[in-house]
Design a protein that fits this description.
6-stranded mixed beta sheet, single chain, alpha/beta, Nucleotidyltransferase, domain 5, 2 domains, Hexokinase, domain 1, 5-stranded mixed beta sheet
């Protein structure tokens, strides 16, 4: 008979966002199983969510190894989520579950580590060239918030570049965007890219456009604003959607120039992958390339939409296998 320790999976991985927390286990080769999704608000803490997952699997204890992707900066032992009230200490979490190894990284650090492991079916291209194989890559993702990261190649492995690029100052590209951002500055003070490029960002854009038009804003949700049927009869939703995609192109182009990401820019997160062909038909790619004298530089860089539902799992599995 196997002992409890021998019967346990090799590792536990989790992608912990402001809206959903996704769990899976992996074996020594990185193969995933036992995937579960929980609403983050269903539990009072990350530890409670992990206990619920372990209990749901009927395991006697937690696996010995764990890697967590969290929607927050990871600086030191204390972690506080950006768009959710959870906080925790890494050392206390390790002790509570007797993890021999616990890796905690920003969610877009995990997404960056996933990029070399994406299959052709995990992405689709939106313009650009082929990309330079070992050149830096960037990843950007609107969801509950806006995550960003990069990936560079050393002689032996890919190394992620953690950062909080979602909170850079959003710059307008034309007079209409200047007007919208001016309205938003009155409300927020600093208008970051996340204030417009996220679920709430879609609502913020629509609300600002309604204010400019002098009409009451409807209580539309982000999925409603991006829904083609509503956009066809609500011009302000259509404009908010198009502005969102154009602004995302601007920020993605900025990221490509900053990282020198000639290996490609990848768009992940919970919003864009659901848009499909509607996204490809927007101004995203033209705005990505619209950098004056560096247009030709950006024209050669491919942009991809990540369709794998949980790319962070690929990155976390690579991290536990010592590949990141």
């Amino acid at each position: 008979m196997k002992s409890n320790a021998e019967a346990l999976p090799f590792g536990l991985i989790a992608d912990v966002g402001g809206t959903n927390t996704r769990f899976a286990t992996i074996d020594e080769h990185g193969a995933m199983s036992r995937t579960r999704v929980q609403a983050t608000d269903d539990h009072g803490s990350l530890a409670a969510a992990i206990r619920a997952y372990i209990g749901d699997l009927g395991l006697a204890a937690a696996p010995r190894h764990a890697a967590l992707a969290v929607a927050s900066p990871v600086i030191g032992d204390s972690v506080t989520f950006t768009n959710h009230p959870w906080s925790f200490r890494i050392s206390e979490l390790r002790e509570a579950f007797a993890f021999e190894r616990l890796e905690v990284v920003n969610d877009f650090t995990a997404n960056a580590l996933a990029l070399p492991h994406l299959k052709l079916a995990d992405r689709f291209a939106v313009g650009g060239g082929e990309g330079v194989e070992d050149a830096p890559r960037g990843v950007l993702g609107p969801g509950t918030g806006l995550g960003a990261s990069g990936l560079i190649r050393t002689r032996t492995r890919w190394v992620p570049l953690p950062g909080e690029g979602g909170h850079v100052t959003m710059a307008p590209a034309d007079g209409r965007e200047s007007e919208v951002l001016s309205r938003m500055r009155r409300r927020f003070g600093h208008v970051s890219a996340e204030r417009v490029l996220s679920g709430q960002g879609l609502v913020n854009l629509y609300g600002a456009l309604a204010e400019i038009a002098g009409v009451p804003a409807e209580q539309y949700s982000p999925p409603q604003i991006t829904d083609r049927r509503l956009r066809e009869r609500e011009p302000l939703c259509q404009e908010a959607f198009e502005m969102f995609c154009g602004m995302l192109g601007t920020v993605a182009g900025n990221l490509a120039l900053t990282w020198g990401a000639r290996g490609g820019i990848y768009i992940a997160g919970g919003i864009v992958p659901r848009l499909g062909a509607d996204f490809a038909a927007t101004s995203f790619r033209s705005r990505f390339e619209d950098k004056g004298r560096f247009r030709a530089y950006l024209e050669a860089i491919p942009t991809f939409v990540v369709t794998n539902p949980v790319p962070a799992f690929l990155g976390l599995a690579a991290l536990l296998r010592g590949e990141g």
